[in-house]
Q: What sequence folds into this?
C-alpha cells in the first residue's frame, strides 16, 4: 500500500524536524533514565514508576515513528514560487463572506499543518477544497454542515 504524501510548508518541515530531534535526543534519554531509576527501586512487577516510564517510552517511540513516516513522505511547498493568480497550497488567501461581509485571511496548508485557530486551513477542508485552483475575484460556494457559504476571493498572497 502506497503511503499518503504529506504536504508541508518549509516552516512546517523545519518544525517537524526539530520536534523529531527533540524526541530522539532529549525525551528518549529522559525516559531511559526514568526506567533505570525505577528498576533501581527493586521489584518491577508492582512498580508504578516503571510502568509509567515504559508507557511514556512506547508513546515517544510511536511519535518518533509517526514523524519519521511524515518526513519520509513529505512534499515541501516552496512558497517563493507560488502564484498570486490562483490559490494553491501555501497561498495566503483573503476571503469575503458574501452573506455577512466579513473578511478572513487564511493560509492554505496540508492537513498535517492545519490549525484553524491560527487561520491555517487544510487543502482537504471544505473551504480549502473549494478555493484551490481558483483565481482572484472568483466566487465559491462551500457546503458545510450548517448549510451553504459563499465567499469571494479578494486577494492571493505568498
A:
Amino acid at each position: 500500500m502506497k503511503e499518503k504524501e504529506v504536504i508541508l510548508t518549509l516552516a512546517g518541515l523545519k518544525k517537524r524536524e526539530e520536534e523529531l530531534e527533540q524526541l530522539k535526543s532529549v525525551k528518549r534519554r529522559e525516559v531511559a533514565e526514568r526506567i533505570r531509576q525505577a528498576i533501581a527501586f527493586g521489584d518491577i512487577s508492582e512498580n508504578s514508576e516503571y510502568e509509567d516510564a515504559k508507557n511514556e517510552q512506547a508513546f515517544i517511540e510511536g511519535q518518533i515513528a509517526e514523524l519519521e513516516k511524515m518526513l519520509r513522505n513529505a512534499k515541501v511547498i516552496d512558497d517563493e514560487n507560488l502564484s498570486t493568480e490562483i490559490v494553491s497550497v501555501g497561498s495566503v488567501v483573503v476571503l469575503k463572506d458574501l452573506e455577512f461581509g466579513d473578511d478572513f485571511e487564511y493560509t492554505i496548508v496540508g492537513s498535517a499543518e492545519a490549525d484553524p485557530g491560527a487561520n491555517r486551513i487544510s487543502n482537504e477542508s471544505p473551504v480549502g477544497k473549494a478555493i484551490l485552483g481558483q483565481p482572484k475575484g472568483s466566487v465559491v460556494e462551500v457546503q458545510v454542515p450548517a448549510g451553504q457559504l459563499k465567499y469571494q476571493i479578494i486577494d492571493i498572497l505568498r
Q: What stands out?
A: The longest helix spans residues 10-40. The helical segments are 10-40, 48-72, 126-131. Strands lie at 6-9, 74-77, 92-97, 103-109, 120-122, 139-144, 147-157.
